[in-house]
Design brief:
It is a single chain. This protein is an alpha+beta fold and 376 residues long. The chain has helices at residues 7-23, 26-35, 40-49, 67-80, 86-100, 103-114, 228-264, 276-301, 308-337, 347-360, 365-375; strands spanning 120-123, 139-143, 146-157, 164-170, 181-187, 193-199, 205-217, 221-226, 266-267, 270-271. The strands form three sheets. A four-stranded mixed sheet has the order 1-4-5-8, covered by helices on one side. A hairpin with a 5-residue loop joins strand 6 (193-199) and strand 7 (205-217).
Length: 376
């Protein structure tokens, strides 16, 4: 099997790397963090490059890119610890529209997502769900020709900065029933919607939502009512592959920084990189990075697998292995830096924090190992 990138894919990777290399160094990221949001200027540059339209079909105004193109972009984002809402707006929210919206809905909503003027977020996670996608207690009840939404959502990525939210709600069944789920597009300024935003441990933004009688019209329904779990699983599968790629980029850069440090940090009159024990630890990091890279490629290739169970197994296997590697590489990077490893001024501490969050998103390595055990 040929794993080489096509000329267009190589050009995409070079273009993204060039932009981030010029505009998104560690100091620039620090300024964005201090401002408490994300850079609208960078977001506009992503739109101008076509990155925000990358996964969408040409008929929707996008570039028609696939999972490999997304992998290339997300790996570059991981190397630079990009804070902008690409995962929540393009992969998750945009994925719901791409996979489940009607042609009219896509025509109405996608242009503003692709040009960067509107940010979208998926509000699905709830307290107590423990990564189980079918666990939804938020309800949607008929109200004339519309719906009334009531409930709460937890840890909505970029939920505070989103202009619109795609909210999962239950129209029938109990809180863990795989049937009876629906997705609704909700304006962020809708009456009855309360958002509490906060920064996570890696500096990215999230929000908790409370919905009290939030009314939406029938045009807000995305996909088939009662059958939304299949769509949610597909979109979260896309996100798992993207997260694996981002983690590989972050691990690779953390390893590079660590090796550079081992070459210049001296002890007993010699660079500590000359100590055999530390060389072995750096090699172990490299092995884990390359194993994770292989699994990220596997996840990308399995993104269009027709068999949903086979796709789920492949993605869980990738997320498990990449999560294990992320924890190992992050820990080793910090330890090899010594006491400065977790200071704000040291880059590897930020990479470790991001890798920790990437492991947790949509199921940590332990969760996906249990999934693999259940499905054989």
């Amino acid at each position: 099997m040929d794993f080489a990138y096509s000329p267009d894919q190589q050009l995409l990777g070079e273009s993204v790397a060039r932009l981030l290399g010029e505009q998104y160094d560690f100091e620039a990221r620090g300024r964005i963090l201090a401002a408490g949001a994300f850079s609208r200027d960078i977001w506009t540059r992503f739109a101008d490059m076509g990155l925000l339209g990358l996964p969408f079909g040409e008929s929707d105004g996008g570039l028609g890119g696939g999972a490999v193109e997304t992998l290339i972009v997300m790996e570059a984002f991981g190397r630079h610890l990009v804070l902008e809402p690409y995962l929540p707006s393009i992969i998750l929210g945009g994925g719901c529209l791409r996979r489940g919206a009607t042609a009219e809905q896509r025509m109405r909503l996608l242009p503003r997502i692709i040009d960067g003027s509107s940010v979208l977020a998926l509000a699905h996670s709830e307290r107590g769900a423990r990564f189980e996608l079918a666990h939804v207690a938020t309800t949607a009840k008929r109200d004339g020709d519309g719906w009334l939404l009531d409930g709460a959502k937890h840890y909505v990525l970029h939920g505070q900065s989103a202009n619109s939210l795609i909210v999962s709600a239950r129209i029938s069944g109990n809180a863990r029933d795989p049937q009876g789920l629906a997705l609704f597009l909700v304006d962020a300024t809708a009456a009855g919607l309360e958002r509490r935003g906060y920064s996570t441990q890696d500096g990215t933004l999230a929000a908790d939502l409370r919905l009290a009688g939030v009314r939406v019209d029938r045009g807000a329904l995305i996909g088939e009512p009662g059958e939304a779990l299949v769509l949610i699983e597909q979109v979260v599968g896309d996100a798992l592959a993207a997260l694996c790629a981002e983690a590989v980029g972050a691990m690779a850069r953390a390893l590079e920084i660590t090796v550079e440090y081992l070459k210049v940090r001296k002890q007993f009159g010699a660079p500590i990189g000359s100590f055999q024990a530390l060389q072995h630890r750096a090699v172990d990091m490299l092995v884990m990075v390359e194993q994770a890279r292989s699994m990220a490629l596997y996840a990308a290739m399995m993104g269009n697998e027709a068999d949903p169970e086979e796709r789920a197994r492949a993605l869980s296997a990738a997320k498990h292995q990449v999560g294990r590697a992320a924890r190992f590489v992050g820990e080793q990077a910090v330890q090899l830096h010594g006491g400065i490893g977790m200071t704000e001024e040291c880059q590897v501490g930020h990479y470790y924090r991001r890798l920790t969050v990437l492991d947790l998103l949509f199921g940590d390595s332990h969760h996906h190992l249990r999934v693999l055990a259940r499905h054989g």
